[in-house]
# Entry
Amino acid sequence: MNATLAPSSLTLFSPLRLGALELPNRVVMAPMTRNRADNPGHVPTPLMAEYYRQRAGAGLIVTEATQVSPQGVGYPNTPGIHSGEQVTGWRPVTDAVHSAGGRIVLQLWHVGRISHPLFQPEGALPVSASDVKPRGQSYTPQGLMDFVTPRPLETDEIPGVVADFARGAANAKEAGFDGVELHGANGYLVDQFLRDGTNRRTDRYGGSVENRARFLLEVTRALRDVWGPGRVGVRLSPSGTFNDMFDSNPARTFGYAAAALDKLDLAYLHVVAPDDADRRHAPAGWKEVPVSSFRAQFKGPVIAAGGYTLATAQPALASGEADAVAFAKAFIANPDLVERFRREAPLAAPDVSTFYGGGEKGYADYPALVG
# Structure
């Protein structure tokens, strides 16, 4: 069964084919940074394997964002996929999810300008598309510190960053994942190249929307070359303002990107819907881009994310807005979220104080339904 079902017949519990992936339901666990990896090596831990195993009832798990190189690090205790030790650390995670009957893809990440010299090799400046300093502060090992002005990547450096993503994709395959998702959202490096609020380049990676989308497409092709068709997804946030992001014409920018991605045999496009935080922090001229607007440009499966509930997810599927819906905070406190949805059971509330960092508390100790 796949996304060609008549829209009115779909529910969250309908099976779905995403490229080469067969999903038993349409409830996706969204990528969520939880800061539980070991430092300084950014190595996944046995506790992470238990956390993901508990949530294997999801139709698909998208892991927390995972950096593809030391240069891509921007937060403490986030996992990587660029060292042999990290690959070894991820293997128990994928084994645990698969043994519980689940499917899991690794989200590949480079934070770009949302880093700090304290995270960078030899204290170097973070890199970005252009030297546009973000407003706000970085969570560093020495506490909150103002972001710095990033160094624009030289044109001849960009193929090396693309190769880092490809190497991360190959390492993800070695670690036993079912595919990969490119993090092209939330103001990180791929997003910094795509949007004109952060891309002021004058080379072939800047200026026109075709040039600004070049990095996104080069990376996506590199991932597809590693994994083949139907095993790569891409996440975009066309209305996102997180990390001080803006684009003068997001409908055009992201519409072009979606149409170009449609030609690359992806498993899915993962689109983050605008939320109240985006609206609160929106700069002058901000324009909201609904998830449904991408149906004309992207013909493959679409996963919608961003504040959905059981009550709002079902209409999104029934209307054809999306083929699956990703849930974030609901999965934190409800490891058996699919079953709770199926029974229309009450949802547990997550402990916000334990979202980032720490140990088992607020991470792998939420109980499932009994009986």
User: Anything to note?
Assistant: Residues 217 and 260 are 8 Å apart (CA to CA). The longest strand covers residues 60-67. The first helix runs from residue 46 to 54. Residues 1-6 have pLDDT under 50 and may be disordered.
